[in-house]
């Protein structure tokens, strides 16, 4: 609570926190609802296969021994007979991508009106529109036009804060890592692994009139082809 002091202007100040670990926790939604029942929840979703690979590469960049000593395919295809470290990394790669399962858990404690879905590709490619929708969701006034504050930086490969006509302020060196493309075998394995979950996700998003992102549409096409 030390990170959330009572604001001087509570009616005009928004307090927020971001975490990569809250979303897929079995206990967090209930705890959040007990502490801040009127909280607005913003969830960023990306292709779960890409998310799994990104986490693996993140662990390698932090010199995690298990990630350094095993290929990505060895990690995501590890059996329950594998070592504890390998199973732990496998679960951290795979489990957060079971989006529908986790969203339903949050919806057990929060009405759909308090949940806003952001799709990672749109956030990366069109952050101005994303922030427009976020401000609308949060009822933020006065409205901030992010087109005046964000600009694509070709060196970093993503949008950054505008400081002047020629200068941007970008996220640090830990952001924007480039790494080899995922191997074909791992890609096929993960598509099969997430296929059923992605179908359920599409139905869930449709139920509260949330946009079906392009990556999910592509995965659903793949699921249809696999049935033929």
How would you concisely characterize the structure shown here?
It holds the Pfam family Sulfotransfer_1. It contains ten helices and five strands; from the N terminus they run αβαααααβααβββαα.
Report on this model:
The protein is mainly α and 228 residues long. The chain has 10 helices and 5 strands. The protein has helices at residues 28-35, 48-61, 65-69, 72-76, 84-94, 99-107, 120-125, 127-138, 184-207, 214-227, and strands at residues 41-45, 115-119, 150-153, 158-162, 168-169. It has a 3-stranded antiparallel β-sheet with strand order 3-4-5, with no helix packed on it. A hairpin with a 4-residue loop joins β3 and β4. α6 (99-107) runs parallel beside α9. The N and C termini lie far apart (54 Å). The model has no long low-confidence stretch (mean pLDDT 90). Residues 35-196 form the Sulfotransferase domain. GO terms for molecular function: deacetylase activity; heparan sulfate N-sulfotransferase activity. Keywords: Disulfide bond, Glycoprotein, Transferase. Disulfide bonds join 160-170. One of its GO terms (cellular component) is Golgi apparatus.
What are the defining features of this structure?
three-stranded antiparallel sheet, mainly alpha, 228 residues, deacetylase activity, 10 helices
Largest sheet, strands/sense/barrel: 3 strands, antiparallel
Number of strands: 5
Kindly report the average pLDDT value: 90
Fraction of residues in β-strands: 5-15%
Radius of gyration: 19 Å
What is the chain-wise order of helices and strands? Answer: HEHHHHHEHHEEEHH
Helix content: 40-55%
What oligomeric arrangement do these chains adopt?
A: single chain
Number of helical stretches of at least 4 residues? 10
The geometry reads as globular
Query: Strand sequence of the main sheet, in spatial order?
Result: 3-4-5
End-to-end separation: 54 Å
Quickly give the structural class: mainly alpha
Low-pLDDT residue spans:
none
Protein name: Sulfotransferase domain-containing protein
Domain Sulfotransferase: 35-196
Organism: Lymnaea stagnalis (Great pond snail)
Pfam families: Sulfotransfer_1 (PF00685)
């Amino acid at each position: 609570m030390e990170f959330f002091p009572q604001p001087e202007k509570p009616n005009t100040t928004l307090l927020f926190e971001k975490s990569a670990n809250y979303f897929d926790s079995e206990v967090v939604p209930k705890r959040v609802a007990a502490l801040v029942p009127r909280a607005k929840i913003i969830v960023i979703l990306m292709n779960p296969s890409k998310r799994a690979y990104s986490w693996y590469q993140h662990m390698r960049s932090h010199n995690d021994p298990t990630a350094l000593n095993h290929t990505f395919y060895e990690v995501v295809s590890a059996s329950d007979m594998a070592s504890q470290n390998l199973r732990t990394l496998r679960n951290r790669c795979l489990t957060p991508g079971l989006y529908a399962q986790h969203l339903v858990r949050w919806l057990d404690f929060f009405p759909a009106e308090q949940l806003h879905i952001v799709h990672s590709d749109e956030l990366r490619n069109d952050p101005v529109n994303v922030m427009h929708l976020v401000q609308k969701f949060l009822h933020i006034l006065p409205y901030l036009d992010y087109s005046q504050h964000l600009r694509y930086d070709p060196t970093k490969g993503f949008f950054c804060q505008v400081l002047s006509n020629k200068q941007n302020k970008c996220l640090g060196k830990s952001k924007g890592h480039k790494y080899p493309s995922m191997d074909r075998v791992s890609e096929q394995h993960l598509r099969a692994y997430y296929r059923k979950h992605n179908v359920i996700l599409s139905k869930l998003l449709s139920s509260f009139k949330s946009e079906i992102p392009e990556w999910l549409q592509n995965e659903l096409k793949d699921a249809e082809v696999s049935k033929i």
